[in-house]
Amino acid sequence: MATTKLLIAGSGGQGVMVMGQMIAKAAILEGKKVTYLPSYGPEMRGGTANCSVIVSDNEISCPVINAPTDIVVMNLASMRKFEGKLSAGGRMFVNQSLITQDSSRDDIEVHKVDAVEIAKKQLGNEKTSNMVMLGAIVRMTKVVKMESIQKVVEKTFAGKKAAMIPLNLEALEAWQAD
Amino acid sequence: MAEKILMKGNEAFCEAAMRGGARFYFGYPITPQSEIPEYMAAHMDEIGGCFVQAESELGAVNMGIGAAAAGGNVMLSSSSPGIALMQEGMSGLCVCHLPILLVSVSRGGPGIGDIRPSQADYRQATRGGGNGDYHLITFAPTTMQEAVDLIYEGVALADEYRNPVCILCDAMMGQMMEAVELPEHKEPVMGDAAIRAYKPWALTGQGDRAEKNRIHAMPWSPEELQESNLEQKVYYDKAEKNLVRYETRDLEDAEVVFVSYGTPARITTEAMEMLKAEGINTGMIRPISVWPYPYAAFDEIGPKTKVIISVELSLGQMMEDVKLGANGRWPVKLISRTGGVLFSSQDIVDETKEILKGVK
């Protein structure tokens, strides 16, 4: 009966859509119901981007999210825009590398993830910062199993980009919860 | 059972059309359906079909007329202002009794509009955006799976009814991803011999026929044009008899009956659950065919209903059909947004309560 309503927001180029799609694909592997709704439009690298992902054991009536159970904010503008919509008691994942400000809510659970720093220093590739965040989301929300996300990573990078698989799998595990 | 795969709406629409036998696609990019020509460009060739990026929407629809006249199974697609540009051709297809499948992914309007979800092309689809006495057989799916199934079936239905079949989607349906089960590939009708057998009216060359097949874009006399229109009316009557489709939900005890289609029907479904939690019983009529419209569905409404509310992303274009269905038996109200703005389920809940205050 569990339903996760996840909103992932950031700026174009931060891998926001990829995070949402990977969760959606992993949920399908587990036989769950899923909807993925991207913001779209005349958007570009550096512009705003967000996607809504709903994962449920039941049929999903509405793909549009009123009050997310979890949100991921990759930049400050996204935190300002979306933290007010989060359900009381919900989780907010904050990209601490770009957001130093504290949340204005005291009725939610905040997880700070130093995604860019971890990607740069620990993994040597800043582009894996979204995978670091994705790992954090999956571990804390259990919206899908880590093994399912690993399978999706392996499938996504199969073929010419297979050399990227170990780095991305490592990125999923890189963040240590406080 | 086939595997369920996660697909973007626009891409799933293409797979459904190709699997349903469409082998000719002519198009021109326009958001929010540009993934359709992109996908067709990549994949139509693989199954022996033909993809052409036309110079404009007008070019695309006229290429469609040509291919359909020669007996090919054609898919066209566009979004609001692009569909507007195709209307001369739509009317032209109808006077020629030619089948095509049209996927219309609506965005905000009028004019160039914006690229956000809208249902402001309801009249364009159901009342004919072109001139003359004709209808488009129009279905408005709500989920990705329903869209896939209707597109797949639509290729054959167009042939059966000798008329364009329109699949009317809002922009969200084109852009979102959902799991779908794709149907099996149908054997396409390709090559003169096969087309001749399946579509004896098609322009496949005289061969051993006593007379050439002719397709008249312009019958010469009013009597001939009337005869041509009445011939097509036989199909329209048949459509009104056989193609009316809808779904109802909880009509028996409903104080309020919503009428909604496309993605707004999904948002309304969530609003119904929220209202139920507050002790307000609601029901829904969800038209699947919007031409022919399911007027008969309104006869199923129970004795407790006080008001009918049309929930749509236009200034009440479908509400006109809702009023025809209600036929004075209940007051008809509207919950709407326009121009690409979306309502939330909470908005629908709040506005429903407001409407109920004014109804006895």
Descriptive account of the structure:
The complex is a heterodimer of chains A (178) and B (360). With 178 residues, chain A is α/β, with parallel strands linked by helices. Chain A is built from 6 helices and 6 strands. Chain A has one domain: Pyruvate-ferredoxin oxidoreductase, PFOR, domain III (Pyruvate-ferredoxin Oxidoreductase, domain 3, 3-Layer(aba) Sandwich). In chain A, strands 2-3-1-4-5-6 form a 6-stranded mixed beta sheet, with helices on both faces. In chain A, helix 2 (76-82) links the parallel strand 4 (70-73) and strand 5 (91-95). Chain A starts with a strand and ends in a 5-residue tail after the last helix. Chain B is of the alpha/beta class and 360 residues long. Chain B folds into 2 domains: 4-192 and 234-238, Thiamin diphosphate (ThDP)-binding fold, Pyr/PP domains (Rossmann fold), CATH 3.40.50.970; 246-357, Rossmann fold (3-Layer(aba) Sandwich). Chain B has helices spanning 9-19, 35-43, 57-69, 80-85, 87-95, 122-126, 144-161, 171-175, 192-198, 222-242, 263-277, 319-326, 345-357, and strands at residues 4-8, 24-27, 50-53, 74-78, 101-106, 137-139, 165-170, 177-181, 246-249, 256-259, 282-287, 289-291, 307-312, 332-336. Chain B has a 7-stranded mixed beta sheet with strand order 3-2-4-5-7-6-12, sandwiched between helices. A 5-stranded mixed beta sheet of chain B has the order 9-11-10-13-14, with helices on both faces. A two-stranded antiparallel sheet of chain B has the order 1-8. The longest helix of chain B has 21 residues, at 222-242. The radius of gyration of chain B is 21 Å and the shape is globular. The model of chain B has no long low-confidence stretch (mean pLDDT 96). Strand 2 (33-38) of chain A pairs antiparallel with strand 8 (177-181) of chain B, so a sheet runs across the interface.
